[in-house]
Prior knowledge:
34% of the residues lie in helices and 25% in strands. It has helices at 50-57, 80-90, 106-116, 121-134, 150-162, 180-197, 208-213; strands at residues 8-17, 24-34, 39-43, 65-70, 73-74, 91-94, 168-172, 200-204, 216-221, 224-230.
Amino acid sequence: MNDLSHVIVTENLTKIYDEGAIPVKAVNNVNLKVDQGEFTALVGPSGSGKTTLLNLIGGLDKPTSGNVWVDGKNLNTLKKNQLIDFRLHNIGFVFQAYNLIPVLTARENIEFVMLLQKASKKERSQRVLELLKEVGLEDKMNNRPDELSGGQQQRVAVARALASKPKFVLADEPTANLDSKTAANLLDIMGKLNHEEGITFIFSTHDQRVIDRAHRVVTLVDGAIYKDEITAAPSDHMKPV
Length: 241
């Protein structure tokens, strides 16, 4: 049963992939509770289930068994359109493969979610410019993804995830392909939003730079939680979601 004092709860969460001769338990009976404003890193070797767990929490994939509650809603019970609408207004995603829209410019990619949310033109323009400056790409705003380096595409992807100021950000290797300065800058941006607005962040990462910033580190091995450590106290000044 969901404990409403936590903003994310997984209950006996399991995902089995039947591709190939032997079924693979990508996520194995995971019970995880996340509070508002946590800055949490999911770590573990490749194939440990980090990305699959993020996708289940974000409603991008359906579990084989178990449940996921996000902000008090059981994602398993939502119809497709309800789930799409919930993600649109509550969750920002950063994908390892960027997932930018090829025909749109950096500016258009960032404001796309805000368009779907029906934000005003003035609000979109101000927010996009602010984020482009934060990630150091204001001079690339009219470039399409194929005109940007991998690191630049990742910065656009992070800016897009933050554009709508979601309650939750799920980030799969957000600092991949970034140099130390750019990675630190992006982590500063996300840390500021976490600190000032109480946005909850969950990262899948191998990057020690991300792990060092996390308040909590959850280690996965073979799809199961092996270790769950609190490494720092969340901010005392976070605004309620």
